Every structure is written in structure tokens, then in C-alpha cells.
Amino acid sequence: MMEDWKLRPARDLGLRPAERLRSLGREPGLFGLGVNAAWRRAVRAYLRSFHGFRVEGRENLPAQPPFVMVANHASHLDALALSAALRGPAARRAHAMAAGDLFFANHAVAALSAYAINALPVWRGRSRRADLETMRTRLAEDGLVYILFPEGTRSRSGAMASFQPGLGMLVAGTEIPVVPCWIEGAREAWPAHARAPRPFRPLSLRIGPPLRFSDAPQTREGWQQVAESGEIATRSLSL
Amino acid sequence: MIPHPPGGAFAHPVTTGIILATLAVLALSGLAILAISKSGRAEPEFRKELWLRWGSWCVLLPLMLGPVLLGREWTIAAVTVLSLFCYREYARATGLFRERVLSLVIVLGILAVNFAALDHWYGFFTALWPLMACLLAVCTIPLDRPAGYIQRTALAILAFMLFGAGLAHLGYMANDPGYRPLVLLLLTAVALNDVAAFTCGKLIGGAKLLPATSPNKTVSGSLGAVVVTTTLVALVGAAIFRGTPLANPVWLVAMGALVSVAGQAGDLLLSSIKRDLGIKDMGTVLPGHGGVLDRFNSLLLVAPAIFHLVQYFLGFGLTAPTRVITG
């Protein structure tokens, strides 16, 4: 296989440290992997001991990356809960899409988001065509796992809003599975208005069977179709 | 043993001389850049570039020369940090960093070989090179992923040779009580070698050396650097090695030529890697220079070459206590 002989420099080669933290091409090295692994173990232990975290339907997770996990969004605990359900290569390659204005606001927060949470910034309300293109390419080429909340923001009421079409652009016309998930209890465990999580409130995650959108076209309609199917599948898990 | 007068870090006149000369060059070049800036002839871009480079040197020189003056442990620690930085840049540029197992083994190997230097355990120090080559060759076999095996193993063994085993020789020299003038000479001579090649090339011009590898290098620059560096190293070497078998004009000239040739070879080695990858700089750590490797490439081959030349004639730290940690 000639492809394996291609030397590929890091996608974020030549970026200054601050740019690198916010780059969608950020690829962690040994240090980043170590920090992320330690963080994941700590989060898993915390969720298990303080929220009795349970996962249902783990068998629905695809055996290998790439795939995209989508879920309802009401709390900062959501991304942590989804990544806590992953193991092995999928866990190492999982990137949560996080609001740039919140999680990459300054260098210290950005460093934590990038190194510990392994988050990639999404900038709300800015031109994102090229960014989405980069994410789409990396998902397939680097075999990543994206943790995505297509509602676009945390629900204040607990009711799930409709899914944005950006999800469609990542997966329409590909074999990359979308895994719908439902998180129960996150709003009570860490509401959007609270500064810190509230321990001893139960948290659980239900993972549904993966969806594939190889027939969906890479058009506005196609993306909408993906978003709608994803939304229906996610909502059906809440019952 | 390198002859050394009793006393502290500045006991040897060559140590004092090199430090003073370095400070003088830094001050003079600062004044020269100031004059160029004031004259208004230079483009703002060029002025900024000059100041960036000069500023980087002001930070870099204390980090390079300071540990050598402070002592053996500091020198070895500084070489360890340098090795890790060099490996990091190499791994990110070649893509080897995606191989977690190999990267981890190389980092542990770098730590081990520098530990051997710190321990003053020459047996372990030399054993690590073949042992690491074997370990790197087998450690990815259990992954059951033969695709790309030759490439990743070759990249890994080259990495350990250059940044682990090779650079560690510089730290090991500190086991000799008289190491300071020699290590300072090597650090400054490879920098001078670069400057001499650049200046002679600009002044004389002429045929390109290896245009596909490094388009700016000329034959005249390369030969000029050999003449300048050999002269300097031979003269300073005569003061360092006075009264030893190395203090013979033939060997001193050979040593100087070795510094220059190995230094340029290290430079061209890195140029080849960068050309093959299609990148300009290995990193962005040093403003005006690029990455750490772009600055220290010349040292990669000089360290083991000079180590073994001196080792052959004098030996390092023969009277110093050995295996100071492992007993």
C-alpha cells in the first residue's frame, strides 16, 4: 500500500502555540495524549462515583472510528458523559465540538479545552464553510470521533431544540455513521446557569443504533434531511 | 582527561575567553543592527527580522552557556531538554508522532541515555544504542500492523540515533572535570561555522554546493567555513589540550576540520529531511530561526564525532567517580 509510505507532517505544523490551541488541525502528541488520558480517567471516576453514571446500548457504538455522536444538550456535563462512554482508540480520537467564544475565550481556558477535553472550537455566527470542510476532511482521513450537539446551544428549559444542518455537511454522502444518544439528568446535575456541577444527582446515557447517510446529497436539502433524521432518532431515545 | 586548573567554573582561561567573546559578539551585533536601523537604509521587514534573530540569541545563549557554567548535572539536564525538543519537532514534521508506541519508546530511550550520562555509566551509555535499535525494531510488531513498518521503524531509529544517542555525547562530556572549555568551544564553534559559511558564501559567491538540498549554500561558503572554523578550533584546542597527545598540530587541525564538516553535514542532513517533507522550518519556537532543530542541527553530528576523537586520545572523566547513582 503506497499510501502508508506517505510522510504526513502534523496538520498544525508551523502554528504558534496560541493558534495551535484553536486550530481545527490540532493533532495531539505524547504530552497531549497523556493529559487527555488522565483527564478522561478522572472524569469517568467522578461521573461514576458522584452521579452514578450508567451507559445503555454501548453495543450500538461502531467498532472503529470514524463516527459522529450526537445528543441532546442541556449541560457542560454532556460532552464529558459522551466521551466517558468511549474506550480505546475511539476515546483517544474523540473531539468534542465546543463553542469557541466560551471554551477558547482565553489562553488558559483554551489550553484546558484543547489538552484535557480534546475540544475543537466552533465559532457561532461566523462564516464556517472552510472550517466545516476541514472538519469533514479530518473526520474521514484521520479516523476521528466527533461529539456534537446539533442544537447549537445548551437548552435552558430541558426541552430539545431542532438540529442544525451543520451535522449534515459532515456526514452526507459518506459511510460515516451517526450515533444518536440521549442524556438523562445532566440538566439537574449541572444546569446552564450554575457555575459548578451538583453532585449526587443521577446521570445516564442511552446510545441508539447508528444511522448512515451515504445516499443523502451534499446540498442544503441533504443536510437538512440528515439533521431531521438525527433529531428524530435522538428524540426517540428519550422515551 | 582534559587538563583543568583547580578552581570554579571560570578557572580555565578558555572558559572565560569564550564567554567574554560571546558577550562581545552579542553586544557588537546589537550595535551593528542598531546602526543599520538608524541609517534607515534597510527595509522595515529586514530590520524586524534582524532584531528577532538577535533577540532570540539573547534568550538562547544564556540557556545554552548557563548550564555548562553551572555544572555537570545542569549540562546533562539541558542536553536532555534539548533532545526532547528536537525529537518533538522531528516527530511532528515527519508524522512519526502518530505512532504512540514508538514515540514513547524513543522518549524513554532519550531519558535513559541521558540518565546513563548522569550516572557516569559508560557501559550502559554505549549499550543503549544497539539495545534501542532492537527495541524500536520489535516494539510495533505486536500491533499487527505491518503496513508502513519499515518506514516507521527507520524513522524511529534515525530519531534515536540523532537526538538520543548522538546528542547525549555532549552531556556525557560533562563527566570530565575539564569539560567546560571543550563544550563551550563546540557550542560556539558550530554557530560560528554557520555564520562563516553564510558570510563567505555572500562575499565570494560562486557555484552552489547542493542546490536541490539547500539552494542558498555555496561551495565557497562551505570551504570558507572549513578554513575559519578549523583555524579557530585548532587555536583554542591548543590551549585546551596543552600537554596532552591531542596537542599536536595535525590532530588539532583534524579536530577543527571535523567540527566544521560534521557541523555542515548536520545542517545538510536536516535540509534533506525538510526538502523531502516539503517544509521550510521545523518549528516556530525561536522567532527568526524557526524551530529548535533549525538552530541545533549542526550539533547533532559534531557531538558524537568530537566525543570519540577526544575519547580516543584522552578519555572522559577517567578519574571521576563512576556509576554515581546506580552504585
From TrEMBL, chain A:
Keywords: Acyltransferase, Transferase. Pathway: Lipid metabolism. Residues 67-186 form the Phospholipid/glycerol acyltransferase domain. It comes from the Bacteria. Pfam families: Acyltransferase (PF01553). The lineage of its organism: Bacteria, Pseudomonadati, Pseudomonadota, Alphaproteobacteria, Acetobacterales. Transmembrane segments: none annotated. One of its GO terms (molecular function) is 1-acylglycerol-3-phosphate O-acyltransferase activity. This is 1-acyl-sn-glycerol-3-phosphate acyltransferase. One of its GO terms (biological process) is phosphatidic acid biosynthetic process. InterPro entries: Plipid/glycerol_acylTrfase (IPR002123).
From TrEMBL, chain B:
GO terms for molecular function: nucleotidyltransferase activity. It comes from the Bacteria. It holds the Pfam family CTP_transf_1. The chain crosses the membrane at residues 18-38, 50-68, 74-90, 102-118, 124-143, 155-173, 179-201, 222-244, 250-270. One of its GO terms (cellular component) is plasma membrane. GO terms for biological process: peptidoglycan-based cell wall biogenesis. Keywords: Membrane, Nucleotidyltransferase, Transferase, Transmembrane, Transmembrane helix. This is Phosphatidate cytidylyltransferase. It comes from Muricoccus roseus.
